[in-house]
Amino acid sequence: MADYDTLGQQVRQAWIDYRLETGDRKPSHIAPWAEISEWDREADRRIARALVTPFVRDRYRLEEEIEQQRTRIAELEREKATVRQAFADMCRQRDEAIRDETALRTWQERAGYVLLAVATARSLDAASKRNAGIVGEVALIVAETQEHARALLAGMVRE
């Protein structure tokens, strides 16, 4: 917590500086901290406390908000890694799935579920540009993968 004696002394010094600037040389107005009464010292401490307290509260509130944002960013990074891993796994399975029509449908269904999950995450966290960028990347991967599957399937049907 703040050292209110030190802050009170600064309030007193500001008072003395102001009184000297205005030409006031009355001894009780320009007496240093060590020479004023405890009552006057307490008044200066309270002035300091009144000036400092809102800033201290704001600082702690901001620190809490920053920590919450850091936690949320870490959660998003974990979600990003999970989604990327899911797509990597799906892409590895894609080539095998394309050779078998039943497996292809299963793969497409799973891709649809993952895309739905990503879209849900996107709507839940639309305010996060960072997450929106990740979702955009994932959607692009899904679109490219589905297009690739369609092209391969069309080639298989023609044969």
In short:
The chain is mainly α. It is built from five helices and no strands.
Radius of gyration: 34 Å
| Number of helical elements | 5
Distance between the termini: 80 Å
Secondary-structure-based class equals mainly alpha
> How many structurally independent domains?
1
Helical coverage, percent range: over 70%
Catalogue the unreliable spans. Answer: none
> What letter string, H or E per element, gives the SSE order?
HHHHH
E-strand count: 0
Largest sheet: none
Describe the protein:
This protein is mostly helical. It has one domain. The chain is 87% helix and 0% strand. It is built from 5 helices and no strands. Helix 3 (38-99) packs antiparallel against helix 4. The N and C termini lie far apart (80 Å). The model has no long low-confidence stretch (mean pLDDT 74).
List the helices and strands and how they pair.
Layout lengths: L3 H18 L5 H4 L7 H62 L1 H24 L4 H30 L1
Helix pairs in contact: 1-3, 3-4, 3-5, 4-5
Q: What are the defining features of this structure?
A:
single chain; 159 residues; mainly alpha; 87% helix; 0% strand
